[in-house]
């Protein structure tokens, strides 16, 4: 029974890894098909000047031209923002962000690697940041704005710097203020609308977050992550992949943040107030369009509205996202065992402050986990040894009661009780370790900290497979040694089946990220040492 349970666990583990569907999140029920809303003056909590009667006459504004006038196009300038972490480009057309390159992250390793362009405008009709105020006819920000400065260059230790765009469109004065920091991937965004007309304006304030999947092609097939829109609604995260977004949909509720998310990098925007209560998602020319809305906003003549946001454009570093606040670290999907995976990753980041080598950190963590589970593993080995001792007696019972299954089970239970043997004692401690392994598997698989992180010698990227397959082969050899050292139940068929497992695991681990292989290899070596120690103690009757 014990061996069958071990085989079942091993086969289940293989199936889970082969299909890369370890922890699929439950399908959210917060999404619904997008519906056209009627423009009303429904008061919106948290917005000033909203105590109005339901029916308000709003004078329609002329439609916005589809393209910028040629004379305006000549006046469009680009503003470059340079910090030690990124290079960003803004355009005076609407004060929009059109490029954000990460200086410390390259698309490929080596001298040919180029900085990752996390945000990029692929056409003039694809603004990557935009705000719109919609009365009966939309007022967009497609106007050439005045800019406070034409370049910003920040160095370590410098104070924050502001970039301000101002313009006017159809009687609405637009102000966009960005604040940049030299040591953060974050930026503060302050957008203000002022009604300079003699008409009351009622509509939706909309911030559009639009981007396409990056051009990065990660080699590991086990590390694939589809481009998705992630939304924190209340305390739960709603995720929608671009390839599965067949029609527009809307998510309503208390929106904490919205992000465009891929495996290692994220663009995230978080409103500072609760007036933003809706996100409309749609696929647009191969891009994801997430419109963050504050509905039923009212501006009286001469009045203004101010909307503040925090923006993060960068790697999905756990420490950075926790510092950002708003539970932004939830954008990293660790799966069902995230409650275990996060502390494990935090431990790796802690030790890395001293080692500066994530390969060494993985080894330290593996040793720590082995120490924690030492008593359980010792108990497992002892139980398997005890089971081996009673195998001859069990075989006699099988032959004696081969035609009476019920009596056989009764006699076997009596035998276990007489010799104080627990048939599940060898497996239960192992079962307790499975959540830890899966959590660490997920943490190492999707952590940007390991991307292009070198170990030693030929392993220069812990997130990629071993280029020479040395560590997977050694790992397979250690599994075979373990298998030979494991007490046999006396069933030759099961023994042969268990010998196949190291071969299966070796081929499976050939394409695994080398960081995961190192963990498994070190764990096997430690397990061999512990089993040798346990066997020696048992041989001396201790």
What does this structure look like?
There is one protein chain. The protein is α+β, with helices and mostly antiparallel strands and 542 residues long. It folds into 2 domains: 216 residues, no CATH class; 303 residues, Beta-galactosidase, Chain A, domain 5 (Distorted Sandwich), CATH 2.70.98.90. 33% of the residues lie in helices and 26% in strands.
Sum up the structure in keywords.
single chain, 542 residues, alpha+beta, Beta-galactosidase, Chain A, domain 5, 2 domains, 9-stranded antiparallel beta sheet, 6-stranded antiparallel beta sheet, 20 strands, 33% helix
Q: Please write the CATH class name of the largest domain.
A: Mainly Beta
Structural class: alpha+beta
If classified by CATH, what would the architecture of the largest domain be?
Answer: Distorted Sandwich
Q: Write down the overall geometry.
A: elongated
Q: With helices defined by DSSP (H or I, 4 residues minimum), what is the helix count?
A: 12
Number of domains: 2
Rg, Å, rounded: 30 Å
Percent helix, as a range, is 25-40%
């Amino acid at each position: 029974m014990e061996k069958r349970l071990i085989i079942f666990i091993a086969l289940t583990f293989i199936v889970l890894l082969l299909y890369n569907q370890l922890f699929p999140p439950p399908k959210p029920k917060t999404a619904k098909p997008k519906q056209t809303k009627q423009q009303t003056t429904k008061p919106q909590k948290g917005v000033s000047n909203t105590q109005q009667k339901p029916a308000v006459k709003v004078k329609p504004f002329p439609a916005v031209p589809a393209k910028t006038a040629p004379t305006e196009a000549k006046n469009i300038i680009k503003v470059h923002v340079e910090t030690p972490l990124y290079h960003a480009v803004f355009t005076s057309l609407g004060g929009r962000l059109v490029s954000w390159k990460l200086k410390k992250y390259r698309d490929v390793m080596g001298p040919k690697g180029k900085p990752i362009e996390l945000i990029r405008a692929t056409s003039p009709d694809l603004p990557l940041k935009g705000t719109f105020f919609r009365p009966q006819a939309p007022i967009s920000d497609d106007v050439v704005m005045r800019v406070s400065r034409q370049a910003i260059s920040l160095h370590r230790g410098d104070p924050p710097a502001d970039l301000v765009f101002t313009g006017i469109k159809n009687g609405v004065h637009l102000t966009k203020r960005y604040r940049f920091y030299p040591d953060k991937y974050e930026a503060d965004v302050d957008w203000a609308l002022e009604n300079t007309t003699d008409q009351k304006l009622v509509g939706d304030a909309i911030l559009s977050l639009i981007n396409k999947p990056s051009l990065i092609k990660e080699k590991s097939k086990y590390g694939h992550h589809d481009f998705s829109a992630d939304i924190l609604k209340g305390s739960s995260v709603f995720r929608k992949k671009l390839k599965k977004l067949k029609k527009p949909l809307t998510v309503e509720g208390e929106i904490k943040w919205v992000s465009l998310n891929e495996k290692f990098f994220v663009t995230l925007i978080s409103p500072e107030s609760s007036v933003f209560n809706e996100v409309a998602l749609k696929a647009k020319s191969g891009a994801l369009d997430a419109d963050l809305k504050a509905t039923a906003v009212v501006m009286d003549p001469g009045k203004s509205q101010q909307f503040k946001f925090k923006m993060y454009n960068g790697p999905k570093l756990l420490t950075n996202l926790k510092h950002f606040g708003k539970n932004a670290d939830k954008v990293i999907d660790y799966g069902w065992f995230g409650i275990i995976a996060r502390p494990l990753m935090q431990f790796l980041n802690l030790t890395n402050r001293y080692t500066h080598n994530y390969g060494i950190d993985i080894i330290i963590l593996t040793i720590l986990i082995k120490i924690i589970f030492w008593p359980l593993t010792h108990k497992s080995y002892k139980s398997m040894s005890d089971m081996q001792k009673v195998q001859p007696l069990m075989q006699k019972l099988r032959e004696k009661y081969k035609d009476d299954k019920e009596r056989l089970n009764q006699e076997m239970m009596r035998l276990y009780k007489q010799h104080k043997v627990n048939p599940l004692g060898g497996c239960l401690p192992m079962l307790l370790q499975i959540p830890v392994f899966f959590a660490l598997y997920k943490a190492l698989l999707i952590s940007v900290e390991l991307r292009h992180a070198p170990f030693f010698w030929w392993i220069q990227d812990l997130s990629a497979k071993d280029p020479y397959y040395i560590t997977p082969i050694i790992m397979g050899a250690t599994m075979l040694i373990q298998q030979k050292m494991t007490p046999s139940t006396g069933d030759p068929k099961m023994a042969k089946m268990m010998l196949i497992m190291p071969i299966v695991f070796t081929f499976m681990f050939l394409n695994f990220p080398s960081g995961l292989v190192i963990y498994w290899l070190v764990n096997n070596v430690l397990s061999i040492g512990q089993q040798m120690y346990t066997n020696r103690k048992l041989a001396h009757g201790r």
